Amino acid sequence: MDTVTDQPHHAVHYVNRVGWLRATVLGANDGIVSTASLMTGIAASGADGQTILLTGIAALVAGAMSMAAGEYVSVSAQSDTERADLAKERHALAAQPDEEWAELRDIYVERGLTPDLAGQVAQQLMAADALGAHARDELGISDIATARPVQAALASAASFAVGAAPPVLVAAIVPAGSAIVAIVGLCLLCLALLGYVGARLGGARVVRSISRTLFWGALAMAVTAGAGHLFGAAI
To answer: How far apart are CA 203 and CA 17, in angstroms?
Structure first.
């Protein structure tokens, strides 16, 4: 016979990982695709092995710093907007609590509660944490979705560097004449692995995730290699 325990059940949901998973997948994908594409473009132009390697190292360092700065600035802008909205809501709660209660009640009515029940729910939630209730149900700001600039910046920079490392390592080992094939082959493998890991962590379909990462990564490398060959031949 099953027994009921006093242990609370805490389900682990994929959405709890959104904050760091998006930045990590974006950084790793960008690291692989941009670095490999740039290196294949340089290799296709007829450059020597040292030039290809230096291009990869420069792309890794510059890309990681760019990702960190870009994520920090963009997520900070989101965080500033959230704080401004919370400040306005805090002022409204202090100045017109009845109107704010009615606003929260109407939100629950629109979601399917009866007016009486919606009013009771709004009253109890506001008694417990008025700002938290309005932030969550009126503004859509929750602990899961709250902007975290430093976390996003570090995750993006680190994942970019990890993604950019394989093509750089290949360029350090493989002769220049075989660089394109080796870089493209390894990076396609890395993209497939990234698509698989991202799908598993995010609860998405594995085949779809792998297919889209491979398609866009291969397209970027092909276009860049074509451009490098065209302009390299012209020069």
So the answer is: 10
Q: How far is CA 57 from the centre of its chain?
A: 23
Phi and psi torsions of 229, nearest 5°: -65, -40
Mean pLDDT over the full length of the chain: 83
Q: How far is it, in rounded angstroms, from Cα 52 to Cα 167?
A: 10
Could you tell me which residues come within 8 angstroms of residue 94 by beta carbon, excluding any fewer than 6 positions away?
none
- For the chain, the residue count is 235
Tens-digit pLDDT profile for residues 101-158 = 998 899 999 888 899 999 999 999 889 988 888 888 888 777 655 667 888 888 889 9
The structural domains of the chain, with segments of one domain joined by +, span 17-234
Tokens of 36: 């490999």
Distance CA 158, CA 136 (A): 31
CB-side exposure of 75: number of CA atoms within 13 Å? 22
Percent helix / strand / coil, the chain, rounded to 5 = 85, 0, 15
The pLDDT confidence band at residue 1, using thresholds 50, 70 and 90, is very low
Nearest to 218 by CA among 72, 40, 3: 40
Residues 6+ apart with CB under 8 A from 137: 104, 107, 108
**Joined tokens for residue 157:** 């920079």
User: Is the CA virtual torsion 183, 186, 189, 191 positive or negative?
Assistant: negative
